[in-house]
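Hi there. Long-time user, first ticket. I'm pasting a complex I've been working with (about 844 residues overall). I'd like to know whether the download I got is complete or cut off, because the file seemed smaller than I expected. Thanks.
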Amino acid sequence: MSDDRNFIRLTYLIEAAGDPEKLAKKIASDQSTGTFVPVPGETDELKNRVAARLTAIRPLPPAAKSSFPSGESGPFKRIEADIAFPFDAIGTDLAALMTIAIGGVYSIEGFTGIRIVDMKLPAEFGKAWPGPQFGVSGSRKLTGVEGRPIIGTIVKPALGLRPHETAALVKDVIDAGADFVKDDEKLMSPSYSPLEERVKAIMPLILDREQKTGKKAMYAWGISATDPDGMIRNHDIVLKHGGNCAVININSIGMGAMAFLRKRSGLVLHAHRNGWDILTRHPGLGMDFKVWQQFWRLLGVDQFQINGIRVKYWEPDESFVASFKAIATPLFSKDDCLLPVVGSGQWGGQAPDTYDRTGRTVDLMYLCGGGIVSHPGGAGAGVRAVRQAWEAAVQGIALQDYAKSHPELAQSIATFAGGKGA
Amino acid sequence: MSDDRNFIRLTYLIEAAGDPEKLAKKIASDQSTGTFVPVPGETDELKNRVAARLTAIRPLPPAAKSSFPSGESGPFKRIEADIAFPFDAIGTDLAALMTIAIGGVYSIEGFTGIRIVDMKLPAEFGKAWPGPQFGVSGSRKLTGVEGRPIIGTIVKPALGLRPHETAALVKDVIDAGADFVKDDEKLMSPSYSPLEERVKAIMPLILDREQKTGKKAMYAWGISATDPDGMIRNHDIVLKHGGNCAVININSIGMGAMAFLRKRSGLVLHAHRNGWDILTRHPGLGMDFKVWQQFWRLLGVDQFQINGIRVKYWEPDESFVASFKAIATPLFSKDDCLLPVVGSGQWGGQAPDTYDRTGRTVDLMYLCGGGIVSHPGGAGAGVRAVRQAWEAAVQGIALQDYAKSHPELAQSIATFAGGKGA
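Hi, the file is complete. Here it is re-exported in full:
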């Protein structure tokens, strides 16, 4: 039923006091046809039909400390193991893939560390799932921004503003020329700011400015809700009032709700991954972003928040760079690439390093909170300063030099360059 | 807007090389009104409306090793910190709760360890969510089992059997008197065993036996699917053919899909938590089951697989015991308790310890795979042996003694007592 090309291939980083190769074989066995006591009806024929196979082992330097606490003393042996699952054993269902190739693996006894570091899916997945509806080109078309990063900002404080208070802040930043504005991901539809009231307070400002200037700011509305029916109602409210984007807490709602939304969506879907960190922050445990993003990408995310250079939250720069490359590299076709959303403590100061380290592209959204709204010259100066920083980065001019003829950038440097970010 | 009683209260285990209390305050700030640069519009009034508060700190003994790898040397300071979120800041939406009080916390810089160890929700959550539709009493009514644990088994091998092959194995175990049978959680609807064909091959056997004996085995069908619409189609197939239970990979489908299913479900929902382990296996990171189960319980799980004593997969016995107590203790009312499903390497040998350590109750499902089907006297003897083990446990008779007059139990001991389990 399967030919040689038709396998789902995963790579596991396995760490153990004992023999890690034995554990790799155990993964292949447990996660397909294996059981612990021979049972009636188990034949070689059915085993061959769906059995997962260990196809390669690469030894890694041992670790002095174990990733999970261990009573045994080190060094702890480490390998990367490639396992191939016959396509027919899993099919294209992403929940089945998650359960069989990833979820169940974490419960196997004997590891001192286990991390999923790569996944290669056959072309059937590209056909079975919709992928992004808008992606990079749709985001550019809707914002009217070409040839430079889409520049966005976030309404802060995260919680507590009533709709009219949020609207006043939004008016400032769209008047300032921000291409994109978003609800903080923690703001969904609380009693002090129900989504519909917020939409009714803000969308007229956006449409009014569009009529006056021709420029429509993209606003990402916090439509996430546990109940998918409720989330669709939220989606419809935004669409009805002329909105074109939503921020989705993908990890909180889960894969099923994302699939449900994508089938019915007319909005650009901007993914926030809160909760993800605990699955990746320990380098010996969990999962690489490169693996995880494939699920959300197939499900239909358009824009993906992936931190940035020198962020204010946890993430090493090299991890961000790897995430950027993952979502900007085609999975099955160019159209399935997502718009990388670079954010967290950004103010323009990180533009040169971002540009140099992510392949010298401007196909990204650059999201600054305080870096725009707390600019001493106001939000308008903040937006101009960020654009100037990107002009300098693309032209290979040092920010300090470019700032000599660009006063807003000069003010930004004076204000934000001291700290870690904005 | 909030009085003193109306808070959502979480407890965080915080580990850090620096000052953990400072990080506790940072959680309270970041996850509600905080931002990093003073922004216009931020007033004390709105802060008070929704700001989270650090309400208590309990120092714990320091850790010699850090949970996340750290460049700093130990010992690492540890505290438990209670933080109260005003109910109005979050409301009853579970995705909002997960995002604000849990998800976002994992990304804060400066921890060497962070684990959510407790959560107390106000009564509004009990009113907003359906909770279990069947729970313990519904599971008993549908299986007709009273006064002892519901005894179940799993069809193995996990993957590869065609519907007629699965049916032959199921016939054996229902003829043997098993109260409950389930698809392996890895079996959903692959091309070699589409759910509908499997249902059509097996349900007639169950209904036929019900007609002959009056006893209807509960079969948990693997209806999980990424697309909630598809999952409902699977649900409807099972219901239409007379089935009454489904096994759901809750972590793979996510909270939204679970809410969607529960609203439309006529089946007992048996939760499998694959993938969960990576969120709890490191004791300094992630989340306690006691916290996580509250989400799934409010969403409407009826039966919850929680491992058992001396399991073949990872989990210390005390962790299992804590999980059992968590789901068997009322959250808001007795009706929201779930049926604990005790499984993994069980064969009856663990019955006495299970009974003694979980509060001397028989309100549980006892799930044995090889422990039933690989009994040397066949599956019928396997079921009888497990019942005998539980009779002995409840009567406080040692298994070896009870086995003297119960040959099936004696055979079980001879076969399975050597290894870790079955």
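A couple of notes from our side: The radius of gyration of chain A is 24 Å. Chain A touches chain B through 104 residues (CB under 8 Å).
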